[in-house]
Amino acid sequence: MKKISIKEKTTLSKGWSHLQKITYEYEGELQTRESYDRGDGITVLLYNLERKTVILTRQFRIPTYLNGNPTGLMIETCAGKLEDVNPEQGMMREIEEETGYRIPHLEKVFECYMSPGSVTEILHFFIAAYTESMKVSDGGGLDEEQENIEVLEMSFKDALGLIKKGDIKDAKTIMLLQYAQINLKALNS
Fold first, then answer.
1. Domain count of the chain?
2. What SS3 state is found at 141?
3. Helix intervals (H) in 60-188
4. What is the pTM of this model?
5. In what order do the strands lie in the sheet with 4-14?
6. pLDDT tens per residue across span 127-165
7. Are residues 19 and 71 in the same domain?
8. Cβ atoms 96, 80 nearer than 8 A
9. In terms of domains, do 32 and 96 share one?
10. Which residues pair with 81 in a beta bridge?
11. Which neighbouring-strand residues pair with 34?
12. What is the pLDDT of residue 145?
């Protein structure tokens, strides 16, 4: 194992997340990088095998707007920050807040660093079956978190088509849809 020695940490910003400048020694060489810590995250693909549908969300994302997305709107899987609970509990909470569904069971499928060169976040990925009987509210997110989330139910085939068309550009969403394409054969038939 390579020897790493942290020499200095400087906070550059501590607002919504924590941005630090880190100076460290790695393999005898002094290096400096910035590290963005926003906490760990959770995401889920909700699917209905009988209807061959999925639940996705659409919401405004300022970074995409700043990088050329003319509306700033992104189609994504339900997701959130992991806040002082285990990933399963946090995901159940986010599903109900964002989509309005109360899901009895989740299946964790993998974990992934989304941008390990600069972001500390590890994302916990889940899938979960849903039925109409599980709908308990309209969803849409929490006002106190300034969420304005549109809930989208669409065919699995249409969701895959949105990737090809370029309307879904969110990595976690693409990863979960492709996971379902490979592992949930009944959605594809």
1. 2
2. coil
3. 62-66, 87-99, 156-165, 171-183, 185-188
4. 0.92
5. 4-14, 18-26, 29-37
6. 999 999 999 998 877 666 667 899 999 999 999 999 999
7. no
8. no
9. no
10. 41
11. 21
12. 66
